[in-house]
Write a structure and sequence with these properties.
This protein is an all-alpha fold. It has one domain. The protein has 18 helices and two strands. It has a two-stranded antiparallel ribbon with strand order 1-2. Helix 1 packs across helix 4, helix 1 runs parallel beside helix 5 and helix 7 packs parallel to helix 9.
Length: about 450
Amino acid sequence: MSALEPPIQATDSCPAPKWATSLGMILLALSFSQIAYAIHPRKGPFIGYLEVVAVFFLIAWGLQVLSSRRLCALRLPPWPIWAALSVAILSLSAATSLSAGLVEVSHYLLYFILLYVMFADVFRGRIEYAWWSLIVGAAGAGLVALVQLPSVKTAVATGSHGLVASDDLISQVPRYVHGLAGTAYLHSAYMAVILPLVFAWICTAWPRRWAIVATIGLFFVAATLLGPPHVWILIAALVWVAAAIRPANWWRPAALVCVPLLVLQFACPQHRHANLDDFLNPWETGSVYKVLSDTGNGQAPPIVKKRWLEWYPALAMIADKPVLGVGAGNYQLSVGQADYWGYLPNAKKSEPDTNNLYLVIGGSMGLAGLICLVAMLYYPWRLAAACAARGDAFAVGLTAALAVLAVACVFTPLLVRGAAVGWSALMALAALRADEVVPRQGEA
């Protein structure tokens, strides 16, 4: 199993300068962060600091491309990205808020057009740099989340935030451990996407001593995943990566990280509640819901959790406007309307970042947008899978990462600031790796 070998044939006689590659590495390492400035604390808009940095990096890189006359050598995004951008623009014809729609379209343009082209240029022939930057970013975000873990026990022991019932205390646990992301769900989902790539790097060096130490470190990072069900998706991906890279003794690296991770989910009360009890229980529980005030005897009627109830209005949007939806960027503005929400009970505000991205895109951009989203996920996965079938370790990790991305979006929308930068980079890296691996294998 090969790891990262230089391509036999050069793909560009005038590569990007190394300082431009450094800019790309910085963006990837910071893609775990969602730190933003909120003009309004609740309504936004939220200006991500990473996006501001990305714009300045794009300007610097763009000037270098123009000055070196490398414009014709740039790799353009594949057709699914252009199709998605076109559908997003067309969907604005049905938008209630044109300004919100234009902001959403500008995000698509930034993430999947401009940043894709930049990543495809600065990492051409230097994919190992992207690998290292993702490893550094995952380690940094994981370390922050590990520091946040002790606050969980403190909260449960002291009853912070005015909570009384022990069940309520434990139910608040995932909100404390979110790394550099905005919520535990986004932290868990993005970590589940990137950690298979990190594990692929570890498996290429197994059983060296540092690889064993790195595997233990990966376990501690994975222990911070308290936004369900992403830890289960991650475990399946790690086992597949180990089996694909080291088929003879795959169980050794896989067992070292997956077995203690599984034990943790059942043995630790906080992990068991977040990743098992709370996820598998479809009903709202606890005594913090507004619906209790509406009942005289203090007993709330059974109410399905909002994370699942919100699938209904999204489906209603698709049924009402199946072609182009309610307009890009207008999903949140429309989800509360009576035409879509109907008479569903409003027990509490829905958990943040638990929406189904496929239904969000389908509701906001219609079936046309949903088809484009599926194509955007399948196209790079197909390229990475073709390289993985030829024995490339990086492609194995990339294939697992893109597969996890597709599954994770059912539970957490990763088309958000920060994570979307990594999404764009994964698509570009799949195309670059296909350029390197597939021709090389054909020459063999």
